[in-house]
Amino acid sequence: MRNVMRWFFIMSLLMLLQKPIFSQIPLPPSRGSNQSQKAQSQRQVDEQLARSFYNNKEYQKAADLYLQLYTSYNNYHYFSQYVECLLFLENYDEAEKNLKSFIKKDNTTNKWKSQISLAFIYMKNNETEKADKYLKKLIGDLPEDKNVFIQMANNLRMRDFDEYAIILYDRGSELKSINYKFYMEKALAYNSMMNFEKSIENYLLQLEIEPDDYELIKSRFSFMMRYDIDGSVVDEMRIALLKKSQDNPENVMFAELLVWFSLQMKDYEIALTQEIALDRRFDDREFDIIYLARIARDNEQYDIAINAYEYLVKKSNEGAYYQEAVVGLAEVQYVKSLAENCDREFYSAFEKRIEAEYNELSISDKTIPILIIRSEILTFKLDETDKAIDLLNEVLEYNLSKYNKAKVKMTLADVYLYKGEMWEATLLYSQVDKSMKEEPIGHEARYKNAQLRYYMGEFDWSLAVLNILKSATSKLIANDAMTLSLLITDNLEYDTIALQRLAKADYYIYQKRYELANQMLDSVNIYNPNEVSMPYLLSRKAYIAMENKDYELADSLYKRVYQGYADSYIADKALLEDAILLEKYLNKKEEAMECYAKLIDEYTASVYVAQARNAYRRIRN
Question: Comparing C-alpha atoms, which of 574, 557, 408, 409 is closest to residue 483?
Answer without folding.
Answer: 574
